[in-house]
Amino acid sequence: MNAAPAGEELVTRWESEQSRLRQLLVLEDTEAWQRSPDFSGLQRVGGVDLSFIKGDDVNACAQLVVLSYPGLELLYEDCRMVTLTAPYVAGFLAFRETPSLLDALRRLEAERPHLLPQVVFVDGNGLFHYREFGLACHLGVLSGLPCVGVAKNLLHVGGVQKSGEHQSQVAALQRGGDSFPLEDASGKVLGKALRSSDKSSKPVYVSVGHKISLETAVRLTHCCCRYRVPEPIRQADCRSREYLRRHFPAADA
User: Fold this and answer.
1) Domain coordinates in residue numbering, the chain
2) CATH superfamily of the domain spanning 26-248
3) What is the DSSP annotation of 118-175?
4) Is the pTM for the entire model greater than 0.90?
5) Which residue from 32, 56, 95, 239 lies 20 to 30 Å from 9 (Cα-Cα)?
């Protein structure tokens, strides 16, 4: 029998690792502040993002921000260029992006532990994923921190797609905070579509990353939105892109 191609071997290994880590996933509220109607006790919310130089899918700017809550003012940021070593494979984004994001969280924990976020917003999916273990789950389990996945685009998974029914449900979201469940073909709820702000009719897609319930994740996402995207993710994205513009102007990042 011929050996499997290297790419196939890698995917098999990654699938096994996702399956192993998924056994550690916690899909419910674990912190006292999560059970408070106004999130009393929550003081620091984090956001992470990677931005790439245009035309370069290996070198990226990894950004971590920590904002105050409920004021959403910047308390801390970590911004540095990283070289991604894992290839891009659909459904396995976490293996490319988690190491540098985890490094940023660990630097913060080592150098300024009093600023470690109590929850991290991730630009991507959590449970709403082909194998129910997206980037937000991966980062949450490895960091041990509550994580929320917030995606701007709908992942077509488990029978969920931009059908006429889905578009009708989106149109029915009248105000910020309105949401509807994202159910797979078996009826399991993997996340929610949320109209996050009165200012934008386009929803975001919220799913559990780790150590938080879906209802709490949706409610907190809405509370952290000044615009469509939650402020921790928006700030991480803006700051990483600005870093690339300043340091790599010729690349038109």
Assistant:
1) 26-248
2) archaeoglobus fulgidus dsm 4304 superfamily (3.30.2170.10)
3) SEEEEES-SSSSTTS--HHHHHHHHH-S-EEEEESS----TT----HHHHHHHHT--S
4) yes
5) 56
